[in-house]
Design brief:
The chain contains twelve helices and ten strands. The protein is α/β, with parallel strands linked by helices. The longest helix is centred in the middle third of the chain and has 22 residues, at 145-166. The chain is globular and about 60 Å long. Keywords: Signal.
Length: 289
């Protein structure tokens, strides 16, 4: 009798799959469960594309229209952007995981994808640590847990070194401009705002509740930044020349920053933060009053 049960147990073991169900929580607090690691992934935000591509680029079957890194993703089908998502095209690709950033278009897409039982992971890293934990959770969903853990550890180490490098630096007033008319900026609740703080910058809206508050020209003029960083066209940079009384204008410290590394919370953000800190430190070294 014992030998008969041993045969049954062994057969069950041989027939059982080598994988088990995978469950993680996304950045919206939702539970995301897969029966097996994903093999067909659609990303609907550039940073999400970079996160997945850093672990398993071969699993990507479609991206959003703004994804451009790594270069190979430009050859993939594009199924949407922040405003509109082509759900029919997306569903036709039969993805087993969709990674997106929240927004009106994404919210509508999630409802339909949920009805079709297509798993969705909401990715919205708010800090360098958030980038690392996104990598780790996505790594589990993609069957690349060890690789993701190693990359997350490396990023944490690099970010910690940057923070330590600038921790003792004297603070400097910085204004970061997003867009123009209306003009927005970031608080410390945004990954970019926290990065500025880690570089030793103080900003006029750093304690705001909103992640990306609308900025008032009057507030910025009163704040008198020593460095102005503009994510926008050259016209937006040149517009500050109307205010020669600003220390940043008087000392030619109004700069454009349009590099994707600055504004995407993905694996390359540590490179962007290093450049951000370098710019802040360069303005600091000028000893502008």
């Amino acid at each position: 009798m014992k030998s008969w049960w041993w045969v049954v147990v062994c057969c069950v073991g041989w027939l059982s799959p080598a994988w088990s169900a995978i469950t993680v929580r996304d950045d919206a607090g939702r539970t995301v469960s897969l029966e097996r690691p994903a093999t067909r992934v659609v990303t609907l935000a550039p940073h999400a594309t970079e996160l997945v591509a850093s672990l398993a680029p071969n699993l990507l079957v479609a991206v959003d229209r703004y994804s451009n890194y790594p270069p190979a993703v430009r050859k993939l089908p594009q199924v949407g952007d922040y405003v509109t998502i082509n759900l029919e095209a997306l569903i036709a690709l039969k993805p087993d995981l969709v990674v997106l950033w929240e927004g009106d278009a994404a919210a509508a897409a999630m409802q339909r994808l949920d009805r079709l039982a297509i798993p969705v992971f909401v990715s919205r890293p708010a800090s360098a640590e958030g980038i690392a934990t996104n990598l780790e959770r996505l790594g589990r969903l993609l069957g690349r847990a060890d690789q993701a853990r190693a990359l997350a550890t490396k990023l944490r180490k690099q970010m910690r070194a940057l923070r330590q490098q600038y921790a003792a630096k004297p603070p400097i007033r910085v204004f970061l401009q997003l867009g123009n008319n209306p003009m927005f900026t970031v608080s410390r609740k945004a990954f970019l705002g926290q990065a500025l703080a880690d570089c030793g910058a103080t900003t006029p809206y750093q304690d705001e509740a909103a992640i990306s508050p609308q900025a008032s020209l009057e507030v910025v003029l009163q704040f008198a930044p020593r460095l102005i960083l503009v994510d926008g066209p050259q016209d937006a940079v040149d517009a500050w020349q109307r205010f020669p009384q600003l220390p940043a204008v008087a000392h030619q410290a109004v700069q454009r920053f349009g590099d994707d590394r600055f504004v995407r919370p993905g694996p390359r953000f540590v490179e962007g933060m290093a450049e951000l800190c370098r710019r802040v430190d360069s303005a600091r070294a000028r000893k502008i009053p």
